[in-house]
Amino acid sequence: MRHDPAGAADEDPIICTTSVRVSVSGELPVPLPAELRYSAADPYAVRLSLGAPAAPPVDWVFARSLLAQGLSRPTGSGDVVVFPERRYRPDAIRILLRTRAGAALLEVSGTVVTAFLQRAHAVVPPGTEHRHIDLDHVVDQLTAGRE
Question: Element (H or E) spanning 111, and its range?
């Protein structure tokens, strides 16, 4: 059952188009188009899509709270770590993405991330995410194909 008193799940997703600087081991940083996306339909998560001019985008999905906490302090472990870059670019946020094949360090504007999160928090305030989960849909997905 969905409990959504504000009707937030019916709103369009929040999309922020920006660019990131991507560094991989042994290579110079390169700019890459990126998109941050948030939807009340998946209230705990943000989606980061990284594009290249001649390739399909690569999507990373991680906790909205991870992105928010990373504005002020290092946070995360495993595949995604977010931390502020205060030394050389005080407004930058760094996102470390790791896979078995390697790692990439992204740098994005802290102002852009802050504005994106403010819009997301206006739709689903932190701590109220559970009110926007469609439990019937989740159960249907988990039991699909079982009889």
Answer: helix 110-123
pLDDT score for 3:
36
Distance CA 28, CA 14 (A): 31
Confidence (pTM): 0.82
- Residue 135, classified by CB atoms within 10 Å of its CB into exposed (0-12), middle (13-18) or buried (19+), is exposed
Closest Cα to residue 42, out of 137, 132, 142, 121?
A: 132
For residues 48 and 38, is the Cβ–Cβ distance under 8 A? no
Sign of CA dihedral 51, 57, 60, 66: positive
| Alpha-carbon gap, residue 132 to 43, rounded angstroms | 7
User: For position 86, what pLDDT does the model report?
Assistant: 76
> Which tens digit of pLDDT belongs to each residue from 91-113?
899 999 999 989 999 999 999 99
The DSSP code sequence of 5-36 is TT-GGGSPPEEEEEEEEEEETTS--EEEEEEE
Give the model's pLDDT for residue 11: 62
Contact in structure between 125 and 83 (CB atoms under 8 Å): no
Please state, in angstroms and rounded to a whole number, the distance separating the CA atoms of residues 108 and 33.
Answer: 11
